[in-house]
Design brief:
The complex is a heterodimer. By secondary structure, chain A is an alpha/beta fold. Chain A has 2 domains: about 10-95, Beta Barrel (Elongation Factor Tu (Ef-tu), domain 3), CATH 2.40.30; about 100-270, Rossmann fold (3-Layer(aba) Sandwich), CATH 3.40.50. Chain A has helices at about 75-80, 115-130, 155-160, 215-230, 260-265; strands at about 10-20, 20-30, 40-45, 50-55, 65-70, 85-95, 105-115, 135-145, 165-170, 180, 210-215, 235-240, 255, 260, 270. Chain B has an 8-stranded mixed sheet, with helices on both faces. A 3-stranded antiparallel sheet of chain B has the order 4-11-10, with no helix packed on it. In chain B, about 35% of the residues lie in helices and about 15% in strands. The chains are: A alpha/beta, B alpha/beta. The complex binds flavin-adenine dinucleotide, iron/sulfur cluster (2 copies) and FE2/S2 (inorganic) cluster.
Chain lengths: ~280, ~375
């Protein structure tokens, strides 16, 4: 029986600063870890503890894993003290991931807020590997200030991909920012309420389009309401749920939400699955 | 949801529900074998077991005025005189024997999983019907491939389960806080044990519940006798009288109006009311035979680092806190609500188990005198009014 709790030694190969408190780390685990877009891993900072993260690298690359991490507390701060060549631990992958077979032939709306774009990057890269299969990929990203934007060099590259558009906003006006201003839901303004217009004229057919959302809880809450208002089907809205997690294995209980274990039934949950909860986010 | 309702306190259980409650797999025994053992011979038998296994028995401790509540102690050279096999349940359930309060589960950077698992052959004499039922939750959570779900097997709990013999004992008395019969249980185990002892005036009926249990009797034919119909009727009388006593002491907590498990989704006010005296200490979680939750903690250790698994409590504020200060259950009332709904609703949805076994230990342990029978009655009644 394998030991579920033992982390796999992984060497930090590269660290790239994204913002003052977010960096993308590339790890090389001693045993390859292959994951599906949306699944997560537990990262160990030796002697400090573990925290769950969704890799931001392409799931089709298995010898290294990249994770984009915001420093917010004990484990993530300890990680900022580590250098290229140091060893951390990884175990996983855990959770369900996106059912990408279901996305084929559809329009895909990807909504990220802040560091929430990081988990979506592995999905975006996986989609790009088969870009022909999807009708449209629309990436909509909100950050607080221009300084908080992650993947600054990648976003323009993504916009050049076939069938792909990238829309961005920042929360407050800023001298360095010429683009859209407002919280991330303003990026849904081109989708009026379904009842008022002819579906054929919309950038999306909300009846069939898929939305993948990741960001802070407050963002999920408002984006969920907005997407439902605009006619998206609850079963086509995929949220990345954040819960406290210790084991990632469906045992420790920390991630429970009613009868769901977010680490097993999630972290990707559809709006339909969580509809029974008053405040799931 | 008519047929779906009797999950919570006091409701009648339909025949179909009784049947669907099968936490343990049949263990290959066509019919449970029964023998009689005299009291003196049982002492000898326990003595024999102690030569090859760690044997724990309930003993009374003469501390405070608590001498009536036994707790487990290790049998060393001889069976202690203070052993108490009859009466009501021991202070602790069988949980600590298969799920240690703290256990090192990994060493890293390098680790050998096998070497870490500590599971000496152990015989626990004394778990009650409620305690045996409680083990079903552990099997579901930690040993789930046994139940054909996709979860992962946990070597630490599984090896202890495999190397632990459960010798259950039928209750001959109930504590004031016992309510097993309100949650679909009985004051005696009907399945899930290796051996079961029914205390009689002159000895015990021993029921064999598994092949593993049978091995505990294999070299002791000299100590065993045939069970007589008098023995059986004495057992039946005891079962009936304890069942009746438990029913009687809980009549006041039954909820009259029709209700189902969703009726625990009561208002914030209803839950705040029952939480008034809770201080969030987590004693209820720790003594509970079905609280399976834990926290992994990493520390420096010789030659590297170690990861331990520690009992955790869902009543603590940090339990659901997420990075950056979020918390899905910031209020204590939300956390107590979560604990009780986990027992009656979430575990049922998830594992088809009502995971309150009615052992009453959370009531015994609570410094705030919170009695979950009253709590459930209050929230169900308030929900019905709303
Ligand atoms: C599926 C998933 C994917 C994620 N992906 C990403 C990602 O790609 N990038 C990213 O940046 N973040 C991601 N996160 C969030 C990330 O896991 C958290 O930011 C991280 O756990 C913070 O860990 P920390 O130790 O630094 O923070 P802390 O706030 O120090 O601690 C985190 C946890 O430890 C507990 N804790 C801390 N102090 C105490 C205390 N005193 N008492 C009790 N408990 C305490 C808290 O309950 C908290 O949940 C993801 C989260 C999930 C669930
Ligand atoms: S034992 Fe009582 S006071 Fe302690 S957490 Fe449980 S209900 Fe609250
Ligand atoms: S919730 Fe209380 S009464 Fe029910 S099994 Fe747990 S400790 Fe026993
Ligand atoms: S993180 Fe432990 S059960 Fe989900």
């Amino acid at each position: 029986m394998k030991n579920l709790y033992r982390p796999i030694e992984s060497v930090i190969e590269d660290i790239k600063a994204e913002t003052p408190n977010i960096a993308t780390y590339r790890f090389r685990p001693k045993e390859p870890i292959s994951f599906a877009a949306g699944q997560f891993v537990e990262l160990t900072v030796p002697g400090v503890g573990e925290a769950p993260f969704t890799p931001s690298s392409n799931p089709n690359v298995t010898d290294t894993i990249e994770i984009t991490i915001m420093s917010v507390g004990t484990v993530t701060e300890a990680l900022t003290k580590m250098k290229v060549g140091d060893t951390v631990g990884l175990r996983g992958p855990y959770g369900n991931g996106y059912n990408m077979a279901d996305f084929e032939g559809k329009e895909i709306l990807i909504m990220g807020g802040g560091v929430g774009l990081a988990p979506l990057r592995s999905l975006i890269l996986a989609l790009f590997d088969d870009v022909e299969k999807y009708k449209k990929i629309s990436i909509r990203y909100g950050a607080r200030t221009p300084g908080d934007i992650i993947y600054k060099e990648l976003l323009p590259e993504w916009a050049k991909m076939k069938n792909t558009e990238v829309l961005q906003t920042i929360d407050q006006p800023h001298p360095d920012w010429k683009g859209t201003v407002g919280v991330v839901t303003v990026l849904l303004d081109d989708l009026p309420l379904l009842t008022t217009v002819d579906v054929g004229k919309l950038p999306f057919n909300p009846e069939t389009a898929v939305a993948c959302v990741c960001g802070p809880p407050i963002m999920l809450k408002f984006v969920n309401v907005a997407l439902l208002d605009k006619g998206f089907k609850p079963e086509n809205i995929y949220h990345s749920m954040e819960r406290n997690m210790s084991c990632g294995l469906g045992k420790c209980g920390h991630c429970m939400m009613g009868e769901f274990y977010i680490c097993k039934d999630g972290p990707v949950m559809t709006a339909a699955q969580i509809a029974e909860f008053d405040d799931p986010f | 949801m008519g047929g779906d309702r009797p999950d919570v306190l006091g409701g009648p259980r339909s025949a179909s529900q009784e049947k669907s409650y099968t936490p343990f797999q049949a263990r290959g025994l066509a019919r449970m074998k029964e023998v009689f053992i005299g009291s003196e011979n049982l002492l000898k038998l326990i003595g024999r077991w102690a030569k090859g296994h760690r044997v724990y028995v309930p003993v009374t401790f003469d501390i405070m005025n608590n001498e009536d509540t036994p707790d487990y102690d290790l049998v060393k050279d001889e069976v202690p005189e203070t052993m108490k096999l009859d009466g009501a349940a021991p202070a602790h359930s069988a949980k600590p024997f298969i799920f240690y309060p703290r256990e090192v589960v990994a060493n890293y950077p390098s680790s050998d999983a096998e070497a870490l698992v500590e599971a000496p052959s152990t015989i626990v004499v004394g778990p009650r019907g409620c305690d045996v039922r409680g083990l079903a939750k552990f099997d579901k959570v930690y040993w789930s491939t046994k139940h054909f779900t996709e979860e992962y097997d946990d070597p630490f709990v599984i090896e202890k389960r495999e190397n632990t013999y459960i010798v259950s004992i039928e209750c001959t008395a109930a504590k004031e806080t016992c309510f097993c019969t309100m949650v679909g249980g009985k004051p005696y185990a009907t399945e899930g044990f290796d051996l079961n002892l029914a205390p009689l005036g002159t000895g015990f009926i021993v029921t064999v519940g598994s092949d593993k249990g049978e091995t505990l009797l294999s070299d002791s034919d000299d100590l065993l006798r045939e069970v007589t119909s008098e023995h059986k009727s004495e057992r039946d009388r005891n079962r009936a009288s304890v069942t009746e006593a438990v029913d009687r002491q809980n009549a006041q907590f039954a909820v009259d109006q029709p209700y189902d498990k969703r009726d625990l989704a009561a208002s914030e006010d209803a839950w705040a009311y029952v939480t008034q005296n809770c201080v969030g200490c987590g004693a209820c979680n720790r003594v509970c035979p079905t609280c399976t939750c834990f926290l992994l903690v990493d520390q420096r250790a010789k030659g590297g680092y170690e990861r331990s698994r520690n009992w955790d409590t869902c009543l603590s504020i940090g339990y659901a806190r997420t990075g950056g200060g979020g918390n899905s259950r910031p209020a204590l009332a939300q956390r107590l609500e979560n604990r009780l709904r986990c027992k009656f609703e979430y575990s049922r949805d998830r594992y088809s188990l009502v995971t309150c076994t009615g052992c009453g230990r959370c009531i015994d342990a609570c410094m705030g005198n919170i009695d979950m029978r009253e709590s459930i009655k209050h929230v169900v009644t308030e929900k019905a009014k709303a």
